[in-house]
Amino acid sequence: MNVSFDIPNPLDYFGSLVDSDAQFPLLEAAVALGHLREPGLDVQSVLSQVDEWQARLRQRVAADAAPLAKLLALNQFFYKDLGFAGNVNDYYASDNSFIHRLVETRRGIPISLAVLWLELAQGMGLEAKGVNFPGHFLIKISLPVGQAVMDPMTGQSFSREDLVEMLEPYRLAGDVGADFEIPLGLYLQAAPSRDVLVRMLRNLKEIYKSQKHGDLWLAVQERLVVLMPDAWSEYRDRGLAHALLGQNVQALADLECYVVHASDVVDVDAISQQVNLLRQQLGKRSESN
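Now predict its structure.
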């Protein structure tokens, strides 16, 4: 008897990974973003490489070692021995957001470096979390002497003064409460895994949207809709990606969805005009057939 197995397509596979917040494999889901560029990417081979690094780390540090000793050993291994660092020469390259490319090149941006570092840290029993800090993704680590906030690009710790200074441009721009003082601690809350993945995808979205790579932008939007099914602005942007590709039927469906569900947003009138234009175009096409 022949037995056949259906292999899920990349989007379905991604959806299965992020279906539940209770069981959310951040590293695997982040690696799976590589299917955007390489549909045949072997996710498990990337995870196996990380497992091998984890095993090497366990040989270096006793399981009952002090947290600070584990942190120092991890940073030595990650930044010195393996040579991971920020890609300061080509910071906005899309490759920096893909974990499989990070594993190959050892160069990335704060959030991709953090996802990989956090996987190794958690495997060592360190209490570490990602932080969705404005403009620069951070890591925070709980130690017996207190909490340390770290730059994923270098492994260096930030002082409170450093963090306040980093936040200042966003206060001046009115992005993070310029009208009143918001406690710094609110910006240092641990980021849920879903939010980390959303930030990774939105980084890619900005790259592909600005470069007018419609197919890649659309693939990113598909995943953002899966991650946040109630985020109506992502339906709007998926519709705009469809429109860029000339897929007017799909564009109309997404833009209509946005107009129906969104409220108190400044672009509803503009999107409504685009909806009417698409309806006219589709109506003319049906009349000519």
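Residues 10-193 form a domain with the C8orf32 fold fold (CATH 3.10.620).
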